[in-house]
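Objective 1b of the project was to move from sequence-level analysis to a structural picture of ligand recognition. The entry below was assembled by the postdoctoral researcher (A.K.) and checked by the PI before modelling. It contains the amino acid sequence of the target and the SMILES of the bound compound, NAP.
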Amino acid sequence: MPGRAQPFALTARETEVGRLLSGGLTNREAAARLFGTPASGGFHLGSIHGRLGVRARHEPRRWWADHREGRTRGARPGARNARWRRAGNRPRTPAPRTAAPHRRGSDAAPATPCMSRPYLLKWSPMPQTRRADGPADRVGRRPLPAPRTPSPRDAPPLHWGVIAPGGIAASFVGALRAHTEQRVVAVGSRDAGRSRAFADRFGIPAAYGSYAEVLDDVRVDIVYIASPHSEHCAQALQAIEAGKHVLVEKSFTRNAREAEQLIRAARDQGVFCMEAMWMRFLPHIDIVRQVLDLGLLGEVRTMTADHGQCMDPATAHRLFAPELAGGALLDLGVYPVSFASMVLGPFATLTTVGDTTPTGVDAQASVVVTNDAGAHGVLHTTLHVRTPTTASISGTRARLEIEGAFYAPATVRLIGRSNELLGYHVPAQREGGLCFEAAEAARCVAAGRLESDLMPLDETLRVMRALDRIRADLGVTFPGE
Ligand SMILES: NC(=O)c1ccc[n+]([C@@H]2O[C@H](COP(=O)([O-])OP(=O)(O)OC[C@H]3O[C@@H](n4cnc5c(N)ncnc54)[C@H](OP(=O)(O)O)[C@@H]3O)[C@@H](O)[C@H]2O)c1
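Corresponding predicted holo structure:
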């Protein structure tokens, strides 16, 4: 069809490029992996992108996702990007308008080859790339360690009851079914129709029209509480009184006072209790722990973590509701705060700048924390806009970068002092990450442990206290507090 590019079959090499890029590797990493030497690899990869079209280079992951679903139109070999551009397409990132330095004035220095050919700069050599699980090199530098996270499928099966079948409960049960041997045997909702629909969707044997009936079901070993934050404490206390183990969604409770109450009750009753801070159980976070324990970063001086989502204030979403303990902090900001607590340990100081929504919950917060060693954590959360959701930890010897969303299965890069890539980890599984927290709970319960070493209750309490301080700085209190 004139004027319109047709789809075309990919070569084996192009398919491999697609697999790597959609798996989270950057163009540079894919070039290094495929072609060995990054410099000439960049040239080869550039040729492949040239054949596929401009968009494959500028938005590789989106392009490959589209291609998998048959939605791409590529340029025919040799036509490079002309058709794509003629069809009115443009790369999303505007080109820089900066004038080349040698053209600014008549007495400016003549152009060097690099200055006149930015393409060469883009694919400049990358000296120390190696696989995440590769051996130490000759001078003893260690690459990223492999994750030690056991397979969720090997965790002993428990019988789960689910309370409050909303959005995250569906993700949780889906992850359990896809990636574990855990069995969900009962679900309870405030509405019998909703619990029946949820049970039918996931093949759950018992559907109850109240939460109490889940607690009365003798088959249930452990209860997963997935209601809004305002309800966590009361519902978990009831489950603990009924002698059930509990996994409570993050944020654990509305505030530290409720968290203390819950922790005391669980310890008194001798049942397992854990905050479902799923990030802490993910394989890439185990790598972060190992990197810190091994001192690969040297002395940590600063870290960053961010989580912002764009929530429409016109919707009656629970995040805008003070009575449900809404706000950015307990839903989104808890991840940066929990991550900072894991990396830095107890906070020595905490300073907040932020604002609130017209409904009176926190909308946006920028928080700077320090620890006793004087390291800084720069944390951010917002419900106004979608932010990069990345995290980084910088030390005197190297830094770690976690791509967004850092709190979900993500690529981690170890980068040296000269900005060279020392190692990286690409997650084997990106979907169903909630299975790892369930597997950890199952292992602990089967071993007779009352809390997890990966997310101890005292650590949950420490995070809740930090969240309280941030809210206090913003002047946000919830009804009934
Ligand atoms: N781990 C994660 O990635 C992740 C992601 C999102 C949310 N979360 C956490 O999970 C929890 C629930 O979030 P969600 O997004 O799943 O919420 P959601 O979709 O609104 O579902 C919450 C459910 O709670 C029940 N509920 C009980 N009391 C309620 C009340 N007073 N008002 C409204 N609903 C009430 C409702 O179920 P019934 O009425 O049917 O009983 C509702 O479906 C929160 O703690 C949140 O921070 C975790």
